[in-house]
C-alpha cells in the first residue's frame, strides 16, 4: 500500500516514516518545501496527481499560544488545507486519515470525552483544528479523524523534552496539577494511523471520528514527576493551579479521551505511556 503523508519533520510524521516499511507500507512524506499547507489548493493538486492508496495528514500549526495572535495562518493550515486534502481524496476514492486534538473540547466534563461529545474549543488552535475536522467530515469521502493528546517523542518539541531541558538549569519546577490527559507516544499514533488507513481502504463504513491517547490519564505535574523519576533526575515538582501559570491560550482541564470505539472498530488499544517513556529515555 502506498501512503502519502503530509508532514516530514514533525513528531508523528517522523514516526510514520519509520513505521511504514515495518508494516509493508510505502511512505512518501512531504515536507513544507514540497507541500506548504498555507496553499491548500496545491496540497489538493498533489493528491490528485499522486498514485497513492491513502493519505495521512500529520502536519499542523501546533504552537498553541502563538495561534492566539496568528489565527488566520493557523486556520489555513489546520482547517482549509485538511478540508482541501479530504476533498481531493474523496474525488479519488481513497481514504484520508487526519490527526486532531483533545483541545477541541472545553474540558469541563467530569469524565473522559466521547468522540460525539459536543466540542467547545477554548482557544484559536482548538478552534482551527475543529474547523478542520468539520471540513474533513463534510468532504464526503472515506475518512478518519483521530483525536490524540499530549504527544511526545525523543526529539520533538514536547512536554518531555521541555522538562528535560529545564532540568539542566533548575532543581525545582512548578507544574499545573489540575489539567488531566493521556500522554501519547508519537510512535503509537503512527502505528494507529497506518492500521486505520489499511482498514478504511477495505471498509469505508468505518469512517468517522475516533479517540486515541496513552494510558493512564495523569496531570501534567504527575507526568513531570514520572519523567524525572525515569530519567533519574532530582527535580522537585510543586503542583500549582492553572491560574498560577498564565498562558495566552487557555487549556482544557479535562483532556481525557474515551478511546473505546477505536478499540472496538480497529482493535487498537491504548499504549501505556510509562513503558514508552522508559524505553525512550533509556535509548536516548
Ligand atoms: N503535539 C501535540 O501534543 C499534539 C498534536 N496533535 C496533532 O497531531 C498532529 C501531529 O502533531 P505533531 O507531530 O506533534 O506536530 P509537530 O509540532 O511535531 O510538527 C508539526 C508539523 O507540521 C508541519 N507544518 C507546520 N506548518 C506547515 C505548513 N505551512 N506547511 C507544511 N507543513 C507544516 C511542520 O513542518 P516544519 O518543520 O516545516 O515547521 C511539522 O512537520 C497534528 O495534527 C496536531 O494537531 C494532537 C494532540 C497533541
Ligand atoms: C513548561 C511548563 C509548562 N507547564 C504547563 C503549561 C501547560 O498547561 C502544560 C503543558 O505545556 P505544553 O506547552 O507542553 O502544552 P501544550 O503546548 O498546550 O500541549 C498541547 O499541544 C497541542 C499541540 C495539543 O494538541 C495538546 O494535546 C497538548 O499536547 O504544562 C507548567 O505548569 N510548568 C512548566 O514549567
Ligand atoms: Mg506546545
From TrEMBL:
Q: Which residues form the RmlD-like substrate binding domain?
A: 1-283
GO terms of molecular function: dTDP-4-dehydrorhamnose reductase activity
Q: Which Gene3D superfamilies match?
A: NAD(P)-binding Rossmann-like Domain, UDP-galactose 4-epimerase, domain 1
Reactions this protein catalyses? dTDP-beta-L-rhamnose + NADP(+) = dTDP-4-dehydro-beta-L-rhamnose + NADPH + H(+)
Against NCBIfam families, the record matches this protein to: rmlD (TIGR01214)
Q: What does this protein do?
A: Catalyzes the reduction of dTDP-6-deoxy-L-lyxo-4-hexulose to yield dTDP-L-rhamnose.
This chain belongs to the protein called: dTDP-4-dehydrorhamnose reductase
The scientific name of the source species is Yoonia algicola
Q: What is the lineage of its organism?
A: Bacteria, Pseudomonadati, Pseudomonadota, Alphaproteobacteria, Rhodobacterales
Amino acid at each position: 500500500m502506498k501512503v502519502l503523508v503530509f508532514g516530514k519533520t514533525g513528531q508523528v510524521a517522523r514516526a510514520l516514516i519509520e513505521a511504514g516499511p515495518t508494516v509493508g507500507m510505502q511512505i512518501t512524506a512531504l515536507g513544507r518545501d514540497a507541500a506548504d499547507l498555507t496553499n491548500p489548493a496545491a496540497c489538493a493538486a498533489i493528491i490528485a496527481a499522486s498514485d497513492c492508496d491513502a493519505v495521512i495528514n500529520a502536519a499542523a500549526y501546533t504552537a498553541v499560544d502563538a495561534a492566539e495572535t496568528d489565527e488566520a495562518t493557523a486556520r489555513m493550515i489546520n482547517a482549509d488545507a485538511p478540508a482541501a486534502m479530504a476533498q481531493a481524496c474523496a474525488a479519488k476514492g481513497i481514504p484520508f486519515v487526519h490527526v486532531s486534538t483533545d483541545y477541541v473540547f472545553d474540558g469541563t466534563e467530569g469524565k473522559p470525552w466521547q468522540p460525539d461529545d459536543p466540542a467547545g474549543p477554548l482557544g484559536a488552535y482548538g478552534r482551527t483544528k475543529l474547523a478542520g475536522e468539520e471540513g474533513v467530515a463534510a468532504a464526503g469521502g472515506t475518512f478518519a479523524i483521530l483525536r490524540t493528546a499530549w504527544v511526545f517523542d525523543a526529539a520533538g518539541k514536547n512536554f518531555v523534552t521541555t522538562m528535560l531541558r529545564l532540568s539542566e538549569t533548575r532543581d525545582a519546577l512548578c507544574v499545573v496539577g489540575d489539567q488531566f490527559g493521556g500522554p501519547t507516544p508519537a510512535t503509537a499514533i503512527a502505528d494507529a494511523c497506518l492500521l486505520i488507513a489499511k482498514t478504511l481502504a477495505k471498509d469505508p463504513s468505518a469512517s468517522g471520528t475516533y479517540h486515541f491517547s496513552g494510558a493512564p490519564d495523569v496531570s501534567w505535574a504527575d507526568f513531570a514527576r514520572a519523567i524525572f523519576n525515569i530519567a533519574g533526575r532530582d527535580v522537585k515538582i510543586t503542583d500549582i493551579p492553572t491560574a498560577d501559570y498564565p498562558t495566552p491560550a487557555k487549556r482544557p482541564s479535562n483532556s481525557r479521551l474515551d478511546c473505546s470505539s477505536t478499540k472496538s472498530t480497529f482493535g487498537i488499544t491504548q499504549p501505556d505511556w510509562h513503558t514508552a517513556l522508559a524505553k525512550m529515555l533509556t535509548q536516548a
